[in-house]
């Protein structure tokens, strides 16, 4: 049994904060859990906080992109927040630009981004 | 190997047979990268490359072994990791090193991406015998 | 001649007239350094060196690399590092050792065959020690240069805050790969520290970019996006624009502005700041 990352809910937004070095199965579990909960909890947005994450390899990168695509199909929006500079530089070098994933500097700005896009005020 | 292991210690060995061994491989090279005093960005690049290669060893090589340690060349210190499996080998290296090409449903960034993240990258493979990938990152 | 015999022959040569030999040596070195270093300091250095050398020869060391010479080498290392730091030339550094050879020359007049042989042997030893000094000197210079390069890099890449939520790096001078990488890391770190969602890279002061540098800039911009910030490049000179096009580098959907002012205006608009010109009737 591999560890499961808790999914929290604030209003109609799901919040996931990754705190430990996840093994691949845990990453896949998280992807499933989120897909389930977007539907069961009628979430409008998902925030994935990776402030504590030191390594994002192509497997985790793909999970982030997949969650973004899944949530879009389920009419929710995903924002990845708190990516460290070293992680961002490494992802670019790796060749992973996470197209289609929205990002924000921190949790607060991520939540603000979701609010703006819900109210239709976001031009992007 | 592209350089000699640092004389003062033996390289560490880690089996790669399960999913959680990929996490252990990351932790093993992280400790080494920190001891080698790589910059934060270089540490991150090296650990990420090791993570890609450990997963390759597991998924495509059917499991194998990681040996890692500090290395020295011309007075410079670096950290090296050698991933060895006795899997099917890679028939077409050029193709395997191409961005976006995959035989196993991944993103196809494992080998080519890992190469961009490190200073030295040596791929040694033979169909039917297995694959050995050696990576080195030098302290600046 | 037995090895031990040679060693004591050398000692004999050196300690024949110890006081005056050392003084002549010091005078000759001080003269060559043209007063840029005090006689007292040279005297202290060379007396120590002289003592260590005689000591090593007594112990039977006739090879510059031998165990017995380690004290001599340590003193020479210190001497050449000091010279390198004080800006003396390689010649001025090596002369400290080689002058001893010249000072010893008069001892050859009327000397026995054994004295000549001893002098030649000592000459070889001093040549080796002089070479060692030069090598240490060169290494010290290299260390100084690379330390300065790092300092220069730190100095030349300031990240400045232009507004709440807007940071900029004004780049000046030629960009190489290493420097661009430093800029990249500093800028991204500044985004986190200041919580800025807008970044501007101003390259008005950059005379030329090559493919590698352009790639680094592109990567910085993509990395900033991954972190949740927007990055604008401003101040691209016409020649650089031509190079970028000629090199076939795709800037894609990256926003570029002619001047830093334009880039700042865009950044402010994006962060929701309204720009109002007061008394605008006349303008």
Question: What kind of sheet is the major sheet of chain B?
Answer: 6 strands, antiparallel
Rg from Cα of chain B? 14 Å
Can you give the helix content of chain B as a percent range? 25-40%
The N- and C-terminal alpha carbons of chain B lie at a distance of 20 Å
Number of helices of chain B: 4
Instruction: Give the count of structural domains of chain B.
Output: 1
Superfamily at the CATH H level of the largest domain in chain C?
A: Globins
Total strands of chain B: 6
Q: Which second-level CATH architecture of chain B applies?
A: 2-Layer Sandwich
State the domain count of chain C.
Answer: 2
Chain pair sharing the greatest interface? A-B, 24 and 27 residues
Strand content of chain B: 25-35%
What can you see in these coordinates?
The complex is a heterotrimer of chains A (124), B (140) and C (283). Chain A is of the alpha/beta class and 124 residues long. Chain A has a single domain (7-117), classed as Transcription Regulator spoIIAA. Chain A is 44% helix and 18% strand. Chain A is built from four helices and five strands, in the order ββαβαβαβα. Chain A has a five-stranded mixed beta sheet with strand order 1-2-3-4-5. In chain A, a hairpin with a 2-residue loop joins strand 1 and strand 2. The mean pLDDT of chain A is 90. Chain B is α+β, with helices and mostly antiparallel strands. In chain B, strands 1, 2, 3, 4, 5 and 6 form a six-stranded antiparallel beta sheet that branches. Chain C is of the alpha/beta class and 283 residues long. Helices cover 63% and strands 10% of the residues of chain C. Chain C is built from ten helices and five strands. In chain C, helix 2 (18-32) crosses helix 3 (39-58). Chain C starts with a helix and ends in a 13-residue tail after the last helix. The model of chain C is unreliable at 1-5 (pLDDT under 50). Chain A binds chain B through residues 2, 21-25, 54-59, 61-62, 84-87, 89-90, 93-96, and chain B through 19-20, 22-23, 26-27, 30, 40-41, 43-45, 47-48, 51-52, 55, 99, 106-107, 109-110, 112-114, 116-117.
SSE layout and pairing:
The complex is a heterotrimer of chains A (124), B (140) and C (283).
Chain A: E1 7-10, E2 13-17, H1 24-40, E3 45-49, H2 58-73, E4 77-81, H3 85-94, E5 102-104, H4 107-118
Parallel strand pairs in A: 2-3, 3-4, 4-5
Antiparallel strand pairs in A: 1-2
Helix pairs in contact in A: 1-2
Chain B: E1 4-5, E2 12-16, H1 19-35, H2 40-59, E3 64-73, E4 76-85, H3 93-96, H4 110-117, E5 120-126, E6 130-138
Helix pairs in contact in B: 1-2, 2-4
Chain C: H1 3-15, H2 18-32, H3 39-58, H4 70-86, H5 90-104, H6 113-155, E1 160-163, E2 166-172, H7 177-194, E3 198-205, H8 211-227, E4 230-234, H9 238-246, E5 255-257, H10 260-270
Parallel strand pairs in C: 2-3, 3-4, 4-5
Antiparallel strand pairs in C: 1-2
Helix pairs in contact in C: 1-6, 2-3, 2-5, 3-4, 4-5, 4-6, 5-6, 7-8
